[in-house]
């Protein structure tokens, strides 16, 4: 099994060279008939213009991809490469996304849509791509815990927790969830925020103490000639 995409591509190149080595004579005959390459390199992608849906997604080659919620209703240019997509808006590339294989799949980044969802938490229960809003299994455990204890507030609490992960650190939120669940404490956004902010403060390096001694102004006269000082 190849360890990386680069190794796999190198393997394919070697296979191609070996196979072509057996066809060299025929290849040389074909090359005599080939036309001159165009002066300008052909684009390695195809373009499509599409509108960002109200779910903050675009539909490209039978699959869904999320974009920042600020683009809802806007038209973007999608450049479709073999292995990835580039999304351009107002002349700038705003996203580079891995291209999904097959059809009926979705690549949803919760950071793209959380600020929109948190304003209407009632939509979370019926959100089409809800499963994509659990970035780690511990987040799913946390949501289930909230549903069992606070069924009327679970969606709101969870979305604020996810917003905390987007704005602060998904890693620190996950660590805080593990800590609370291991201690048998009830999960709440207020408790998570308290732990995450505390961890964030601990992670900041202490500012070094710097002392700057005042220089006597007369010392600057030593840098000047006697005539300049007199003037």
Descriptive overview:
The chain has 8 helices and 7 strands; from the N terminus they run ααβββββββαααααα. The protein is an alpha+beta fold and 231 residues long. Among the domains are: 46-107, no CATH class; 113-203, no CATH class. The strands form 2 sheets. It has a 4-stranded antiparallel β-sheet with strand order 1-4-5-6, with no helix packed on it. Helix 3 (110-117) packs across helix 5 (154-167), helix 4 packs antiparallel against helix 5 (154-167) and helix 5 (154-167) packs across helix 6. The longest helix is centred in the N-terminal third of the chain and has 17 residues, at 5-21. The relative contact order is 0.07.
Helical residue percent band:
40-55%
**Low-pLDDT ranges:** none
How would you describe the shape? extended
For the biggest sheet, the summary is: 4 strands, antiparallel
Radius of gyration: 29 Å
H and E string: HHEEEEEEEHHHHHH
By helix and strand content, what is the structural category? alpha+beta
Number of helices: 8
Strand fraction equals: 15-25%
By DSSP, the count of extended strands is: 7
Rounded to the nearest angstrom, the distance between the terminal CA atoms is: 81 Å
| Strand arrangement across the biggest beta sheet | 1-4-5-6
Q: Could you tell me the mean pLDDT?
A: 87
Short note summarizing the structure:
With 231 residues, the protein is of the alpha+beta class. The chain has helices at residues 5-21, 24-33, 110-117, 137-149, 154-167, 170-182, 189-203, 226-230; strands at residues 46-51, 57-60, 63-66, 75-80, 84-89, 92-98, 106-107.
